[in-house]
Amino acid sequence: MNPRSPITESRAVRFVLITGAIFVLTLFLLLPLFAVFAEALRRGWEVFFAALEDDAAQSAIRLTLLAAGISVPLNTVFGISAAWLITKFRFKGRALLLSLIDLPFAVSPVIAGLVWVLLFGAKGWFGPWLAERDIEIIFALPGIILATVFVTFPFVARELIPLMDSQGNDQEEAAVTLGASGWNIFWRVTLPNIKWGLLYGILLCNARAMGEFGAVSVVSGHIRGETNTLPLHVEVLYNEYQFSAAFACATLLALLALVTLGLKGLIERWSGHSSTGN
Amino acid sequence: MSISIQSLRKSFGSYTALDDLSLEVPDGSLTALLGPSGSGKTTLLRIVAGLEFADPGSGRIAFHGEDVSAIPAGKRGVGFVFQHYALFRHMTVAQNIAFGLSVAPRSSRLQAEEIRRRVMELLKLVKLDGLEGRRPHELSGGQRQRVALARALAIRPKVLLLDEPFGALDAQVRKDLRRWLRVFHDEIGLTTLFVTHDQEEALELADQVVVMRNARIEQVGNPQTVYDQPRTPFVYEFLGNVNKLGFGNDTRYVRPHEIEVLFAAEFDPSTDSLAQVHHLFSAGPVATLTAKLHDGQFLDIELSRRQLAELSLSVGDEVAVRPLVAERVR
């Protein structure tokens, strides 16, 4: 037995706390996850796979991958640039930029979607101009990407800012005096120092990009087989009382969450190992 | 290569970090920028390196007569060692040292084989051979310091700049490394400018000491000159212990070891003052005696333990104190 530390609570208190925590976790996290898989498989594997192989489902999966495949790299570049600006330079409007980065977290996703409709929708500010030129943004892929980019903007930047702040500029300055170009400094000094934080931010960004419902729902128009992403497809199926098919598609999102969590754990472990002693 | 700094100004907003400052650093010298924090010494070093720039239109920095004020840090040819070393954490010792050589433009970059040879030479120079595969976090503070030095030297800099080179080290390591750096400097003969707030370090290590205060230079000279002939009260007080005595409007400074203690019977009214022994402390190489003058001012006196034993004084005894030098400073 370990000697009791001075801040250890009595056995009874510990028992109550642990049981309470397990109860809440089970009720709110594990049970829903279990329910998703149970519902999806209730009518057997055949129905499950049929739901996934359905044309509309396939199109939703492709669209989700495409939207994430475009928004995540964009936000990775934006996030790195914003974090670089904010941590390496002192300039007017820096505080404003910091709050702007947080805006998508503060704003309801529905508003995030409506903003784009107001700007680019048929009756929006630029609607007529776009219509004249036959450019479709709302109810099409560009709108979905815009909404996704907006909603997932903070993830990479928010992950990098505290990290880069704590590392300071010393190593970059050392590289400057040694004659390295800005490009070299970024690739050989800055990036290796932030790689784990960056990976972590990209992972969370991706999870949100694939799972985003609210903002995308407003701009997508729910055109089956064309502008439905996976979360939207799940909703459509559910509203049509196709519960097994809805849950089958939902398992994909649940799996995405589990994979994200698994990778997140791995990243934490690797980065922990590589930074010991620093 | 000599460094010549002429009427440099630097302000951060309304704060003046350097106020019309000029300085000559002779070729091959080891010069200390000494001053309390906020005196502008680090800012000066960073401007010489090109990491900061002086206020527009002010001043000029020249290496060996050539104006470098407009040359960016990376092309200025300075070796800079940061206070906390700023080693690249994810690189090995060898990769750290080779960095400056491996990022050189392709046209002037050395062959990989040549770079490796140079790295090995430098490792030997800083006495770290065998540690080339280690990463910075596997090294002691003193070893990291020497990696940083080797990395700075790899690019064959014209001048070497060190920011608080011993600031982050333990007392014992600091002493060893200080001695080592002096010998090292004499071997390579590179013009070196280092920042410190430790007067002992500056006096022991440097050929030339630059005492700074409030964005200005108070005095420049070799260690003996600044210690023995301080030009301002600040220099007097900053370089070692000193007694500051007020006589009306007159202030006199006298160092604790420049006072002789005599029996009261030997009192000579033309040179001496009578005082009472207030406190005695005699652990360590020198004994310290605090005497209280009749006007109530205290005087710290350092004497050898043998002298103190010969006088066989105890607290409360009356003595005559005779300043050997009594400098009055403007």
Description:
The complex is a heterodimer of chains A (278) and B (330). Chain A is built from 13 helices and no strands. Chain A has a single domain, classed as MetI-like fold, CATH 1.10.3720. The relative contact order of chain A is 0.13. With 278 residues, chain A is mainly α. Chain A starts with 10 loop residues before the first helix and ends with a helix. Chain B has 330 residues and is α+β, with helices and mostly antiparallel strands. Chain B has helices spanning 41-49, 73-76, 93-102, 112-125, 141-154, 171-188, 199-205, 223-228, 233-238, 305-311; strands at 3-12, 15-25, 30-34, 60-63, 66-67, 78-81, 159-163, 191-196, 208-213, 216-221, 243-247, 250-254, 259-263, 273-281, 286-293, 298-304, 318-323, 327-328. In chain B, the strands form four sheets. Chain B has a six-stranded mixed sheet with strand order 6-7-8-3-9-10, with helices on both faces. In chain B, β11 (243-247) and β12 (250-254) form a beta hairpin. In chain B, α3 crosses α4 (112-125) and α3 packs parallel to α5. The longest helix of chain B is centred in the middle third of the chain and has 18 residues, at 171-188. Chain B starts with a strand and ends with a strand. Chains A and B meet through α9 and α10 of A and α2, β6 and α5 of B.
What's the short story on this structure?
The complex is a heterodimer of chains A (278) and B (330). Chain A is mostly helical.
